[in-house]
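Weekly modeling sync, notes
Attendees: S.R. (lead), two postdocs, one rotation student

Agenda item 3: backlog of single-chain predictions. S.R. asked that every request posted to the team notebook include the full sequence so nobody has to chase files. The rotation student volunteered to paste the first one in as an example of the format we agreed on. Action items at the bottom.

Example entry:
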Amino acid sequence: MFVYNVKINGKNLFKIFFIVTTIIVLTLFGFGTYKIFSTAHSNFTVSDILKNPDVVDIPTINYTNVLKEVHENIDSYVGTKIHFTGYVYRVIDLSDNEFIIARDMLISSDYQSVVVGFLCKYDHAKDFIDNTWIEVTGEITKGNYHGDMPIINITDVKTVQKPTDDYVYPPDNSYIPTSSLI
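Predicted structure, as returned to the notebook:
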């Protein structure tokens, strides 16, 4: 019978632990890098979302990205039908058949926000009081409100409850807070 005696001293134990830990860290790093680069090309842009021939649903998470893209490239999106939720917001110089379907965009960590939204036209706009949450479907047109502006001609509207995710966030990689500059 052959008996093998294994003696492990502290130096060898440390070497084995170090090698195993290094292999695990490198494996996790490699997997993370793979996931980042393999999904980078599969992401779509806002313009890809809005080129859908049907009605485009604008989720809260993408609201300001879509708003910014449509404002910057109005002509590309004229005729696109969109569906989204917001609250009725009016400013003094709007006509009787106009209102803004707004959302509050957070601009700081202490919940300071600004109102952002689409200018909308609807024949029965007076039926909705300010701060009423509504869900609309409409078509993007090009209009004039202190310059070229996308205007949503509403085709369908209904009153809804205030959503749990009522705040929106600044567009990706483009918002520069000005509160520290003022």
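Discussion: group reviewed the output briefly. Residues 40-44, 175-182 have pLDDT under 50 and may be disordered.
Action items: rotation student to repeat for the remaining queue; S.R. to check formatting next week.
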